[in-house]
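Hypothesis: this fold can be encoded by more than one sequence.
Test: take the C-alpha cells below, design a sequence, compare later.
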C-alpha cells in the first residue's frame, strides 16, 4: 500500500514538473513572438508623440553626439545637484525639415517629484529657443487633480514661448515666464514645470 502511494506521489510530481516545463516553454515562445511587435509599437507611439510636439518637423534623428551630451548633462547634475530638483533628461533627438536640415530638438525629461511619482514630458524646442509643443509621456497623478496636467488648458501655457526658465505661480500668472498652477495641484504643476525647465536648460547649456 505504501509502495503504491509512493508511486502515485512520484507520478504526480513528474506530471507537475512536465506541466511546469511545458508552460515555461510556451511562455518563452509567446514572449519571443510578441517582443518585436511590442517594441515596434512603442517606437511608433514615441514617433507619434514627437510629431505632436513638433508638427513642423518631418523626421526625428537620434545622434551619438546628442546622447553623449545628455549623459554629460546628467552626470553634472548628479554630481553637483540640479536647480530643478530631482530631474533627469532622458533623451534628445534632432528635429529635421523635409531637406534634412536641423530645425530644433525633441527632448524628454522626468521629474521625480510628482504627487504620485515620476512625471515625464516630451517637448519640441526650436533652434531659436521657442517651444513648439509639450506632451505628458507618463504620470500617475490623481484623476481630476494632477492628471489635468495632460489637458491643453494647462500645457498651452508653455507653448510658443522662449524663456530661460518657467516659474509656477499660485496668484495668477502675468509674465511670459509664469505658469498658473492647477487648483489643488501645485505639486504636479511644479513637477511638470521642473521637467520642462530641465529640458530647456539642456538645450541651452549642452545641446547648442
Amino acid at each position: 500500500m505504501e509502495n503504491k502511494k509512493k508511486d502515485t506521489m512520484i507520478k504526480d510530481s513528474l506530471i507537475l514538473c512536465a506541466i511546469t516545463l511545458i508552460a515555461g516553454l510556451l511562455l518563452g515562445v509567446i514572449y519571443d513572438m510578441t517582443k518585436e511587435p511590442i517594441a515596434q509599437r512603442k517606437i511608433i507611439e514615441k514617433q507619434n508623440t514627437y510629431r505632436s510636439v513638433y508638427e513642423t518637423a518631418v523626421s526625428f534623428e537620434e545622434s551619438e553626439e546628442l546622447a553623449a551630451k545628455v549623459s554629460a548633462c546628467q552626470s553634472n547634475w548628479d554630481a553637483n545637484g540640479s536647480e530643478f530638483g530631482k530631474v533627469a533628461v532622458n533623451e534628445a533627438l534632432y528635429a529635421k525639415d523635409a531637406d534634412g536640415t536641423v530645425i530644433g530638438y525633441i527632448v524628454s525629461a522626468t521629474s521625480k517629484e510628482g504627487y504620485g511619482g515620476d512625471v515625464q514630458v516630451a517637448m519640441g524646442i526650436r533652434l531659436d529657443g521657442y517651444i513648439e509643443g509639450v506632451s505628458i509621456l507618463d504620470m500617475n497623478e490623481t484623476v481630476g487633480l494632477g492628471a489635468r496636467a495632460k489637458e491643453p488648458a494647462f500645457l498651452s501655457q508653455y507653448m510658443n514661448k522662449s524663456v530661460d526658465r518657467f516659474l509656477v505661480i499660485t496668484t495668477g500668472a502675468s509674465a511670459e515666464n509664469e505658469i498658473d498652477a492647477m487648483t489643488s495641484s501645485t505639486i504636479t504643476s511644479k513637477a511638470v514645470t521642473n521637467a520642462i525647465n530641465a529640458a530647456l536648460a539642456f538645450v541651452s547649456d549642452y545641446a547648442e
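The two ends are 83 Å apart (CA to CA). The CA atoms of residues 100 and 164 lie 27 Å apart.
Hypothesis status: open.
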